[in-house]
Write a structure and sequence with these properties.
This protein has 785 residues and is α+β, with helices and mostly antiparallel strands. It is 28% helix and 23% strand.
Length: 785
């Protein structure tokens, strides 16, 4: 389904191998308006669906009166929960256990409300009509009888004695009582500490807001009993499997998922959503495709949200400032139901990533995950990784101030050293590579750390407060799952890469083509990418957790080796030589010691036409599965400078410098672009993005009039440098980069902001540090003084 670039979309006839800053081949296609997103599709005979959603946050669903809607012109059906009997529900496969050893509580999550609603925006019914306007009018005519129940919107409210229960099988609204680390050793470390720093830290809830709202088309083919879902996703193979196994209860070969271009996701479009089953059931009942596209106002309510965890975090240090232990005790908001991957982000991922680049011997992380009457929480760029880095970095800056230590020296003193590699972290993971002290030193030099005092003085002369902050970070990427590395030689002379990862804005075609060009010498203008058809895949882990190039890149390297092996056999037949005498270099097979040879693409054409030797390969195509490999550990240091107007509370990021270790950079231009996007999203979370519910559970920041996203004018110029220490765990030496911008920007921006405010007596301020929050903190500090 993906739009294909023309040869003219690749710039100039140079070597497009690994390490070259090759422009994205996808961009001209999209700029010309030739992309194809789900909402662009118009299938023959399609009808239109609109969801009726709960207008209240908590209540008993007593009845649904759809008679008036069904009587309206062009209305075809109203699908309710009863119509989905026999199908499955939205599942959660995480094997987490409570501290007492009992399994995590996983209340039933129906696709349409059964007898209770638990958040505003929960889907209750699907109205299908001949036209979109007709479906919208009919949806407004559906009458809901809902008996109001008391509402809780925060984990503290949900945990309070006597709080209303959202699920009968989740006493105390508790989904999971999570704990990891070494509790006894951590307590012992704190008992002998010379100094303990403690902070109450909030990682604020975010509305994810990709450029393209969610959209899907359900199709049913009665002749073979097969469902097809056209949908924006992060990987069709996994989505197909989860949809078939858990929801449709159908054999996998009876379900197909197709994804074209995707306008952003950031983790949000990965899971099975409640809307998918009603669309497919409606298509089955009506015998025609049924299309649905979210309005932006619905997206604010129905797309899962991100982050939302509050913790008390402590750091224990000895008299010299060496880290002895950290501990975290917090409460995380799950929303009304468990997202399919929740609460991975607020538990395991925080614990693993909080260790960061430091020699912290032990830790103890305890998080209570609670249900509330809010939109469910799911993955958002980094999914626990930025949270962990933010918590430890804020503790370090605060400890330095409390102990009268230099914050740079405190980090240096506790860094894991290159000589420590491979380093067994207390998380149980082993870091294979990295030079964290060198990255820090290089970032300080690039940021002109020593010249900051003069810049601060200049700001003060203009009545402004100025601060500088460090965000030293390390991320643990998701471990690559089994991933397909398919290489297909087409009749038109092009070569198709078939992969189970999926590009939803990253620009996969170009770096994947660079890897294949580097391995097989195939001109990049001949390379195409197939990624969005589950029928074409034999494996696929999807895109997420900054693992795509590790997974698909490694799969392509291995598949390329298989192509070369098959090519030697075929070339031996064509060149009338023994396979052992055939060499391969720069896209050409030759007889060793001679100039007799044949190019790979010419050989593929000959093989396709048929070779006289019956034992020769019938095709050079390869459908290979790369077995999962370890996580990687991208790391870096970001340095931000923030200027505050004390009269208004407005904070502006005025300088930003990054030095990053992403291992081998296949395409530095794309890596820098990924970093820019993540940094801007981090700035948005730190200073602007506020998700607020009222006491009735209504989202009061439910539009762009109320919810502030960063704009181009809010983004500083970003310095970008690479200090690459290639990973040793994959053949390309890559480490992943997609989520690092958030991991570095949250702590660097907030540390800089507190550095600006500390002279006014402010020790800490929580995200989002909006102008109102900063102004109020300054007034309170002034009154206290």
């Amino acid at each position: 389904m993906n739009a294909r670039p023309d040869a003219r979309d690749f710039a100039t006839p140079q070597k497009f191998g690994i390490g070259q800053p090759v422009p994205r081949a996808e961009d001209p296609v999209l700029v010309r308006g030739e992309g194809r997103y789900t909402d662009d599709l118009a299938l023959d005979g399609q009808a239109y669906g609109v969801f009726v959603r709960s207008p209240i946050a908590h209540g008993h669903l007593r009845g649904i009166d759809a008679e008036a809607a069904l009587a309206m012109p062009g209305v075809l059906a109203v699908i309710k929960a009863a119509d989905l009997d026999g199908y499955g529900t939205i599942g959660n496969a995480l094997p987490f256990k409570n501290q007492d050893g009992t399994p995590m509580r996983k209340p039933v999550h129906p696709s349409l409300s059964l007898d209770r609603v638990r958040y505003v925006g929960e889907p209750i019914a699907l109205v299908v009509a001949e036209t979109l306007a007709g479906a919208r009018d009919a949806a407004e005519a559906v009458v809901l009888d809902i008996e109001d129940l008391p509402v809780v919107t925060t984990p503290d409210e949900a945990a309070a004695e006597g709080a209303p229960l959202l699920h009968d099988d989740a006493p105390g609204n508790l989904a999971l009582d999570f704990r990891t680390g070494d509790q006894a050793a951590t307590e012992a470390a704190f008992a002998k500490a010379a100094h303990v720093t403690s902070l109450d830290l909030l990682n604020n809830r975010l509305v994810i807001n990709p450029m393209e709202p969610r959209s899907a088309i359900g199709v049913y083919e009665p002749q073979d009993g097969r469902f097809t879902l056209h949908v924006g996703s992060q990987g069709v193979f996994g989505l197909r499997n989860n949809l078939a196994d858990g929801v449709l209860k159908q054999p996998r070969d009876k379900v197909r998922v197709l994804t074209g271009n995707v306008g952003g996701s950031f983790g949000m479009k990965a899971p099975v959503y409640p809307e998918y089953l009603p669309l497919l059931e409606a298509a089955k009942r009506l015998g025609r495709p049924v299309k649905w596209t979210d309005l932006r106002s619905e997206s604010f309510l129905s797309d899962h949200h991100g982050r939302d965890v509050a913790v008390t975090a402590d750091l224990a240090l000895d008299p010299q400032g060496n880290f002895l232990a950290f501990r975290v005790k917090g409460r995380a908001n799950m929303g009304g139901y468990l997202n399919p991957l929740a609460p991975l982000f607020q538990t395991v991922n925080i614990a693993r990533n909080m260790v960061g680049v430091y020699r912290t011997p032990v830790f103890d992380v305890e998080v209570a995950c609670l249900f509330t009457n809010t939109t469910p929480i799911g993955a958002y760029r980094g999914a626990g990784r930025p949270e962990g880095n933010y918590f430890i970095e804020r503790l370090i800056d605060t400890a330095a101030a409390e102990m009268n230590l230099d914050r740079v020296e405190l980090r240096r003193r506790n860094h894991i050293r290159p000589a420590d590699m491979p380093y067994k972290a207390p998380s149980g993971l082993t870091y294979d590579s990295g030079d964290f002290p060198a990255v820090l030193d290089r970032a300080l030099a690039a940021a002109d750390w020593d010249g900051f005092a003069a810049r601060r003085a200049e700001s003060e002369a203009e009545g402004k407060l100025r601060g500088i902050g460090i965000g030293d970070y390390l991320e643990i990427t998701a471990p690559p799952q089994n991933e397909m590395g398919g290489i297909r030689f087409e009749a038109d002379g092009t070569v198709t890469i078939v992969t189970g990862t999926l590009d939803y804005g990253q620009g996969h075609l170009t770096p994947f083509a660079q890897v294949l060009h580097d391995r097989l010498g195939i001109p990049v203008d001949r390379i195409r990418l197939l990624q969005g058809d589950s029928d074409q895949l034999i494996a696929g882990g999807g895109t997420g957790g900054s693992k795509s190039l590790m997974a698909s890149g490694t799969a392509l390297v291995e598949a390329g080796d298989l192509v070369i092996a098959k090519g030697r056999e075929a070339a031996a037949s064509v060149l009338e030589a023994g396979p052992a005498d055939i060499e391969f270099r720069d896209g050409r097979f030759t007889i060793a010691g001679t100039d007799r040879g044949i190019g790979l693409l010419d050989l593929a054409a000959k093989v396709r036409s048929g070779l006289p030797d019956p034992s020769a390969p019938k095709s050079l195509d390869v459908a290979h599965t790369h077995k999962e490999s370890p996580s990687a550990f991208p790391n870096g240091c970001h340095v931000a400078e923030v200027e505050v107007d004390p009269e208004t509370g407005v904070a502006t990021v005025v300088r930003y410098t990054t030095v990053n270790d992403f291992g081998t950079l296949v395409n530095p231009m794309l890596v820098e672009g990924q970093l820019h996007g993540g940094v801007v999203q981090g700035i948005g979370q730190a200073l602007m993005e506020r998700t607020a519910y009222d006491e009735q559970g209504q989202l009061v920041t439910g539009s762009f009039m109320d919810y502030c996203l960063p704009r181009a004018s809010d983004a500083p110029f970003m310095g970008f440098e690479s200090h690459a220490v290639p990973a040793t765990t994959n053949p390309l030496g890559v480490k992943g980069c997609g989520e690092a911008g958030c991991a570095g920007s949250l702590p660097s921006v907030m540390n800089a902001l507190v550095d600006a405010l500390r002279p006014r007596g402010i020790r800490h301020i929580n995200m989002p540090a909006t102008p109102q929050a900063i102004w109020s903190a300054l007034q309170d500090a002034g009154n206290a003084a």
